[in-house]
């Protein structure tokens, strides 16, 4: 009985390895060791900026416009943007170019913007209307950082502009 059990385990192991090899042939691997799939989705789903203490520097959530391909992040007045660690979440199987490998200078992405009543809540969090107005202007700093999202199929590529707004002193 034990011999039969060992043969069954060996058969299952070989079947699993064969299935894995067939799967790898169907979906090749790119230069980064990531699977190239048939997925065509290509977008940024979340954005975060961490300071030297690995604490978030953002006020609320970043505004991400996947149609205009713009990410608007909001930081406290006086935030040092020369040494931050960005974290960009992407859709499944996508990758980012250039890769983010460490600390980054986002000071070139900082932009001035005229605020109106209602842009900020009483708690100091940006309202949705602010992100919409920023994207509608399209007047971003020429030095704003840009990252390209590459879909799982490695064919579709979308370049996102990342801009930073500093909350005014109150």
Please, could you describe this protein's structure?
By secondary structure, this protein is of the alpha/beta class. The chain has two domains: 1-27; 44-166, Immunoglobulin-like (Sandwich), CATH 2.60.40. Helix content is 21%, strand content 25%. The protein is built from two helices and eight strands; from the N terminus they run αββββββαββ. Strands 2, 3, 5, 6, 7 and 8 form a six-stranded mixed sheet that branches. A two-stranded antiparallel ribbon has the order 1-4. Strand 2 (63-65) and strand 3 (70-75) form a beta hairpin. The chain is elongated. The mean pLDDT is 89.
- How many helix segments? 2
- Largest β-sheet summary: 6 strands, mixed
Q: Provide the number of structural domains.
A: 2
Span of the ends, CA to CA: 79 Å
- Which word captures the global form? elongated
- The structure class reads alpha/beta
Helicity level? 10-25%
As for the CATH topology of the largest domain, it is Immunoglobulin-like
Reported CATH architecture of the largest domain: Sandwich
Q: What value does the Rg take, in angstroms?
A: 22 Å
What percentage of the residues does DSSP assign to strands (E)?
25-35%
The CATH class designation of the largest domain is: Mainly Beta
Series of H and E elements: HEEEEEEHEE
Residue stretches low in confidence (pLDDT < 50, at least 5 long) are none
Mean pLDDT, all residues: 89
Q: How many DSSP-defined strands?
A: 8
């Amino acid at each position: 009985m034990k011999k039969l059990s060992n043969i069954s385990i060996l058969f299952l192991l070989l079947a699993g390895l064969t299935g894995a090899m067939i799967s790898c042939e169907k979906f090749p691997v790119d230069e980064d060791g990531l699977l190239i799939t048939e997925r065509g989705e290509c977008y940024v789903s979340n954005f975060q900026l961490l300071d030297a203490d690995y604490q978030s520097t953002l006020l609320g959530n970043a505004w991400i416009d996947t149609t205009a391909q713009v990410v608007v992040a909001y930081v406290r007045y006086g935030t040092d943007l020369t040494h931050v660690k960005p974290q960009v979440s992407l859709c499944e199987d996508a990758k980012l170019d250039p890769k983010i490998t460490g600390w980054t200078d986002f000071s070139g992405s900082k932009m001035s913007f005229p605020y109106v009543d209602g842009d900020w809540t009483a708690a100091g969090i940006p309202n949705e209307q602010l992100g919409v107005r920023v994207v509608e202007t399209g007047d971003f700093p020429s030095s704003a950082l840009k990252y390209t999202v590459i879909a799982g199929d490695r064919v579709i590529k979308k370049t996102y502009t990342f801009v930073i707004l500093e909350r005014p002193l109150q």
